[in-house]
Amino acid sequence: HSDHWGYQDQTSWLNTFTACNGKSQSPIDIVTRDVTYDPRLPAIKLDGYDLSDGPELTLQNNGHTLQLQLPNTMRIVKGFDEIYYAAQLHFHWGNTEVPGSEHTIDNVHFPAEIHVVHYNSRYGSIKEAASKPDGLAVLGAFIGIGLHENDNYEKILSVIKDVSSEESDTKIPSFNVRLLLPNSLERFYRYTGSLTTPPCFQSVNWTVFNDTITVSRKQLAALEETLKAGHNESLSKNFRAPQPLNGRRVLASFP
Ligand code: SG4
Ligand code: ZN
To answer: Tell me, what's the ipTM?
Structure first.
């Protein structure tokens, strides 16, 4: 496909994409004893996330992840200095042996992680915003294994076979995207970082929620085993290794 990078050889990103060598890269390991509680971190308020009865949504396998395109009527209306419009959400995962979240908590990976990517409304498009220091806000949440099937995740995972090959897409009925995130958005970590893939632009104001989401073992297996990347290889372990903090502070909205 068009961009020639993969997860197997992450050190080669450094040669081709200079920003990947930067001092504020993502993901990071969140060391809970080192975070700074900031009681003044504003609560996050989302708007327009309930897309029920709206037009169908495009789900794609872009060779690096499973991605759902989102309308910019979905917004973060409080929590940052400016309003951020949603662009897409996607996932990072491992395989049955290796848990594949990107962020880690005290060096522990979760099985998977969801990222909802938003761009600053001062810019005309995500493409324009992606290279600006205040361009992006990504909401991240950890996905673990629970006893029950997650009906909301099933809206995506039930059609995953339709996008098993690289660069394929399909349409799914719209639904309430808020339900893909944890019940409570009050407890989160915040730090400044980057895209976790090439070109690694240091343009992301990161929020990683403390509360987690669960899907069934079977649902996680569908994510881990169904998708293919280039050369018909299994699309799995699509997570970047944790990057050095280099003195950055990680804030927590809770004590
Ligand atoms: C995934 O590869 C997405 O498909 C990319 O989106 C995204 O890049 C990239 O991850 C990095 O995003 O939240 N993990 S992350 O830091 O959103 C951008 C597209 O290629 C620019 C559209
Ligand atoms: Zn991501």
So the answer is: 0.99
For residues 189 and 209, what is the distance between their CA atoms, to the nearest angstrom? 6
Q: Are the CB atoms for 188 and 43 separated by under 8 Å?
A: no
Among all ligands shown, which has an atom nearest to the Cα of 2? 1
Pairing outcome for strands 136-146 and 213-216: parallel
- Tens of pLDDT, residue by residue, the chain (255 residues): 446 899 999 999 999 999 999 999 999 999 999 999 999 999 999 999 999 999 999 999 999 999 999 999 999 999 999 999 999 999 999 999 999 999 999 999 999 999 999 999 999 999 999 999 999 999 999 999 999 999 999 999 999 999 999 999 999 999 999 999 999 999 999 999 999 999 999 999 999 999 999 999 999 999 999 999 999 999 999 999 999 999 999 999 999
The alpha-helical segments, DSSP class H, found in 68-185 are 126-129, 151-157
Cα distance between residue 134 and residue 144, in whole Å: 30
Q: Which ligand is nearest to the CA of 26?
A: 1
Does any ligand 1 atom lie closer than 6 A to the CB of residue 65? Answer: yes
Q: Give the long-range contacts of residues 13-18, CB within 8 A, separation 24 or more.
A: 13/198, 13/200, 16/198, 17/198, 17/199, 17/200
Count the neighbouring beta carbons within 10 Å of the beta carbon of residue 176.
12
Ligand 2 centroid – CA 27 distance (Å): 9
**CB contact at 8 A, 98 and 128:** no
**136 three-state secondary structure:** strand
Q: Where are the beta strands (DSSP E) in the chain?
A: 29-30, 36-37, 45-47, 57-61, 66-69, 75-78, 84-93, 104-105, 112-120, 136-146, 168-172, 188-193, 204-209, 213-216, 251-252
